[in-house]
Amino acid sequence: MQSGLLALLTCLLLLSACGSLPRPFQPESKVAVDLRAPSTRAPLRVGAPQGAEAGDPKRFSLKVAEQLLTRGIAAEPQWFSMTVAPALETRLLKSKATLMEATEGNERLEMEWRLVSPGGDERELARAQLLLPRGSWREGHPERIEEAAYVNAAAIARALGVSPAVEREAEEATASRLVVLPIEGATGNGAESLEQAILQALGQRGIALAAAPEQQDLLLYCLVDISPVQGNVQLVTIHWQLLEAGDFVEIGRVTQENLVPAYSLAGAWREAAGEIAQAAADGILELLQQAGLRDAVQLGSPS
């Protein structure tokens, strides 16, 4: 039922002139939306490390989440969450840090990662070790925290079955990054499924992803519009909007639309999300290239 609709999905690429843009994530009441917390639906939430006390646990969990994002794994720090109760499909990554003496002014940091299911079942997932200058973990040195996050995210990604090709592309990611904002308007589990699928599709194309935007980064906003039922079908239109993070100026849009059987997207989107995301990612990549934003991508075909 869903695969038939997706075979005909069209992708219309519109490269707009730069200019002011209504900000769909800033309501008219001028209540600010914290872009550092763009999602409450990421399937993986990275908890703060336990055990050997980290000097900057929030930064560590943020950087681990960002490194996972570059590998196409939808993740966010647990402290990003704006809800007390996790989403039904959310899993938690717990870590325990152990520090051991090493030679020549260094110390060995060992991290044990455990994966907690939505139902509370817990299992060992991965272990990672690296050498750090003595005291840098407890002092929260930013560069050492990023090194530790990189090594740990790579171990987590391997344990979750991410291919080495995606990891190599992540290593080559450059200055400008893309932050995927919460998907709005989707019925059923579409917001969660499509968010995870687009992150994976963009990561496969070498587009550098991040959880929290900096001034030079880009934002990807998605609005799903599902029309009322007419003659046992519904028109589904998906708008992808690429914006500059610094001033919210629009770079361009990708629009997908098609007629679908009535209520076919009211529950689980299943393979629909993946197929929609793959088609959209091609358009977003082309949009980045046409706009001359080559520093945001590693050009090449999907892995």
What report would you give on this structure?
By secondary structure, this protein is of the alpha/beta class. The chain folds into two domains: 2-33 and 175-296, Rossmann fold; 44-162, Rossmann fold, CATH 3.40.50. The chain is 28% helix and 27% strand. It contains seven helices and eleven strands. The strands form two sheets. Strands 2, 3, 4, 5, 6 and 7 form a six-stranded mixed sheet that branches. A five-stranded mixed sheet has the order 1-11-10-9-8. The chain is elongated and about 70 Å long. The two termini are 28 Å apart.
Q: Main sheet?
A: 6 strands, mixed
Distinct helical segment count: 7
Could you tell me how far the N terminus lies from the C terminus, measured between alpha carbons in angstroms?
A: 28 Å
The helix content, as a percent range, equals 25-40%
Would you identify the regions where 5 or more consecutive residues have pLDDT less than 50? Answer: 1-40, 82-86, 297-303
CATH class of the largest domain reads: Alpha Beta
Sheet-strand content, in percent, reads 25-35%
Instruction: Give the count of structural domains.
Output: 2
Mean pLDDT: 74
The general outline is: elongated
CATH architecture of the largest domain: 3-Layer(aba) Sandwich
How many strands? Answer: 11
- CATH topology group of the largest domain: Rossmann fold
Determine the structural class based on helices, strands and strand pairing.
alpha/beta
